[in-house]
Write a structure and sequence with these properties.
Length: 815
């Protein structure tokens, strides 16, 4: 049988075969296929394959750019206008494949050549210049070597960068106001990637701008927040957009700033004037220099922040930019300014201080009438207005008979005020004080006139009292007067006269009528205070009434102010109670002296001696009718007081006519206080402690005592120095029985020494010492009193008309 030839189409093997035996592998596949075919054919037709014909697809494809860089998905990015080359390398394939390029599905002309060294095909295409439309263009390289097999292909997309297409500064060429904050916008579009925007002011880069990009990335917006001022006017503000990935110039937009601002003004004095030598009567003119955009439409002038208007009669001439002041005076002095108005607002110039020099004149609102008592020192204050304030004062006293210059030693000066210390001694010393001052401008034309009148009782219903008594120390006259004149709201014309009472720390101001006085008190009482030693003290403002100042001599601290107020409520209305202190020049100045001062309106007289809280005290006040200590009747000699002698005799148990001294010697019991009026008998009188039993107790007779007397419990008489030596250093006392002691010491107080108050007679051994008129009378009385003694004691009488008179009996204690 003749051999049969078969032709098998084994198809295209897509998988890559080993290079060592591609034909063997392909043959095996074909043999397998032939066996399958021969299995379906007749057995007699099975034979062997005598000839082979086979095909292989391309093994791989690579797209590269002109730099030889492999591109798998994207080619680029390229810039607009670039010319590009792409090549497609095809490896393997039998027979040799055909290579073609496609652009968005459309074939492109390409140059294909065989590369023998690498045994592959290369197909190249050239595109350009590229435009924005070439962005994302798809390029496909396709290879095929069999019509019935699927072709092999590789594709890339073109990527491109674009420079910004446009830029716009929104709101440009509009005027801006100085001092206001603006948010300026600059927009740019067409850049890929998004553009960067920067701001510049006259070539200087501005920071702190914010950028935003649209969702598609095509538009960029930059916001600049800025505050401009008038110095920025005319500067060039711009914004620039650029893409750093594209080599191209940045786009720029901007405009020259038009800054509007409120007027900027200042006052200029006339060039022919010297600001440091302007006197009263000089003509002064000013110019207002204004810079403004837009231009001002009005200019105003102000004096001390008050608008000036044209007033030729008062010498004020106002034009648009000028001010003329004719014949200036001291009231013209002050701060001048001009104000310019435009569409942006108003601008005021700095203050220009006009200093007008003038001779001294008397200052207003100072007291002109002073009520001064004879031998009372008054401090008269004179205040002047002067510019310059360096002044010299001269005081002159005038009365109906003569005119006398006050000595410089009585004059003191502080700034533009002067105080003269003046003390009228006789009726001729009442008159008028003239105060005049001089500075470098000239002498005061009209002096300040102060009337010094006798200090009579001021009319109560029209008098306002400023009470400084609550202060720990009396304020200076200048301070007290200044306080009253400035704080009470009274004008100089409303004050008829003024009187300062230093002893009581009162300042009385008599006004024109009672209604004004009442209004002044109502407006000011309880609303003022003064600071002293770091503490504030209220200053009562009251109406002057018929109140009197009552002095209670030498009360101990055990007697409280409440006890005093309750006692004096029987005699009238109590206004105030304050303690007394030692005054200068005593070393103990400022220390309480034991006296109390009660201000009260009395409805009936107060006796000279009263008992408060079991303690007897001497009472004195102005206009008082003095009374007897024993009987509370009109004052009379102690030996003439019948009621007193009877009282002493009854207490002593002695009948008949007996002298004071005899009653004091023979009685060992304590004597009660003298009787007081029935309405005063509410306090239990104090009694002196009874001494030891003695044959003859020491007797102390004090005439008109004025200082404290200290008596030891042993009966020893003590003589105390006069008030002028009260604050001197005490000497050591002598405690020998029956011996005169010159001064007490602190040690005596701890050993039973009792203290009797000043101005009160001292009781020793329970006996009361009575005032005597002379030493001879005292000696006579003592002789009678001691006649009953077996051995009369020696008698010593000390008579000192300037101090207390003390009589000491030297006796021995009987066991």
């Amino acid at each position: 049988m003749a051999p049969v030839s078969f032709r098998f189409d084994c198809g295209i093997v897509r998988q890559r075969m080993p290079s060592s035996s591609p034909r063997v592998q392909f043959a095996r596949i074909c043999r397998k296929a032939s066996k399958t075919l021969s299995a379906n054919a007749n057995a007699t037709e099975v034979g062997r394959v005598e000839r082979w014909k086979w095909k292989l697809p391309p093994e791989r494809m690579v797209i590269r750019d002109q730099l030889g860089m492999e591109r798998t998905t994207v080619a680029g990015p390229y810039s607009e206008g670039d010319n590009i080359k792409l090549r497609c390398d095809v490896y393997g394939g039998r027979p040799t494949p055909a290579v073609a390029w496609y652009r968005d599905g459309l074939p492109l002309a390409a140059e294909t050549k065989y590369m023998p060294l690498g045994k592959h095909l290369r197909s190249e295409i050239t595109l350009g210049p590229l435009t924005r439309q070439d962005l994302h263009t798809k390029l496909v390289c396709r290879a095929s070597n069999h019509a019935r097999a699927n072709p092999v292909e590789q594709s890339v997309q073109i990527d491109m960068n674009f420079a910004p297409l446009n830029i716009r500064l929104i709101g440009s060429h509009q005027p801006l106001s100085a001092g206001r904050r603006y948010d300026l916008l600059c927009q740019s579009a067409g850049s890929r990637p998004a553009a960067s925007i920067t701001w510049f002011l006259d070539g200087v880069r501005l920071d702190k701008s914010k950028e935003t990009t649209s969702a598609d990335g095509n538009q960029t917006t930059s916001t600049l927040s800025i505050v401009l001022n008038r110095t920025d006017a005319g500067k060039y503000l711009s914004c620039k957009a650029y893409n750093s990935y594209v080599q191209s110039d940045a786009l720029e937009d901007g405009w020259q700033l038009d800054i509007q601002y409120v007027p900027d003004a200042y006052v200029k004095l006339g060039s022919s004037l010297d600001p440091n030598s302007i006197r009263e009567g000089t003509d002064v003119y000013f110019d207002c220099i204004v810079q403004a955009h837009p231009a001002v439409y009005k200019v105003e002038w102000k004096h001390n922040n008050k608008t000036l208007t044209r007033n030729i009669s008062q010498g004020v001439i106002v034009s648009k930019h000028s001010l003329v002041l004719q014949g200036v005076s001291r009231t013209t002095a002050g701060n001048f300014s001009c104000v310019g108005f435009n569409a942006e607002g108003e601008g005021s110039s700095p203050m220009f201080e006009l200093n007008v020099m003038y001779a001294p004149t008397c200052a207003p609102n100072q007291p002109r009438v002073y009520g001064v008592a004879k031998q009372e020192n008054a401090e008269i204050r004179c205040v002047v207005d002067a510019n310059p304030p360096d002044v010299e004062f001269k005081w002159t006293f005038n009365n109906s008979a003569e005119s006398i210059d006050v000595q410089a030693s009585h004059i003191s000066r502080l700034g533009t005020s002067s105080i003269v210390s003046y003390t009228p001694m006789t009726e001729l010393d009442y008159g008028t004080l003239l105060c005049s001052a001089t500075n470098k401008i000239g002498k005061q034309r009209q002096p300040c006139v102060f009337h010094i009148i006798a200090a009579g009782a001021m009319e109560a219903k029209c008098t306002v009292r400023v009470d400084f008594s609550k202060l720990p120390k009396r304020p200076p006259v200048m301070e007290a007067t200044t306080f009253a004149m400035t704080q009470l709201g009274l004008k100089e014309s409303e004050i008829a006269s003024l009187r300062l009472k230093p002893a009581n720390s009162f300042l009385d101001l008599r006004v024109k009528d009672q209604a004004l006085a009442l209004r002044t008190v109502e407006r000011n009482d309880g609303k003022h205070s003064l600071e002293c030693d770091g503490n504030k003290f209220p200053i009562p403002i009251t109406m002057v009434d018929n109140s009197v100042m009552i002095k209670l001599h030498d009360l101990s601290v055990d007697t409280t102010d409440r006890m005093i107020a309750e006692f004096f409520s029987r005699y009238g209305e109590v206004r105030s109670i304050r303690p007394g202190v030692w005054a200068k020049p005593y070393p103990c100045a400022g220390i309480p002296d034991g006296n109390r001062y009660v201000t009260a309106v009395l409805s009936k007289p107060v006796p000279s001696f009263v008992t408060i809280g079991g303690e007897e005290t001497l009472v004195t006040y102005r206009g008082q009718q003095q009374t007897c200590r024993t009987c509370s009747l009109a004052v009379h000699h102690g030996m003439s007081c019948t009621q007193g002698r009877k009282l002493i005799a009854q207490k002593a148990g002695v009948s008949g006519r007996l002298s004071y001294a005899a009653a004091l010697v023979t009685s060992n019991a304590s004597v009660q206080q003298p009787p007081v009026p029935k309405e005063d008998r509410t306090e239990t009188p104090r009694t002196a402690p009874a001494p030891d039993t003695v044959t003859g107790a020491p007797i102390v007779l004090v005439s008109a005592p004025t200082v404290p007397a200290i008596v030891p419990s042993t009966g020893t008489a003590v003589s105390v120095p006069a008030p002028s030596a009260m604050c001197a250093a005490p000497t050591a006392p002598t405690t020998t029985q029956g011996t005169m002691v010159t001064a007490p010491s602190a040690a005596n107080t701890a050993t039973g020494i009792s203290v009797a108050t000043p101005s009160v007679p001292v009781a020793t051994s329970g006996k009361e010492a009575m005032p005597m008129s002379s030493s001879s009378e005292i000696e006579a009385e003592l002789t009678k009193a001691t006649s009953a003694f077996k051995t009369p004691p020696p008698l010593q009488v000390s008579a000192n008309p300037k101090a207390q008179r003390t009589v000491t009996l030297r006796v021995r204690r009987q066991r």
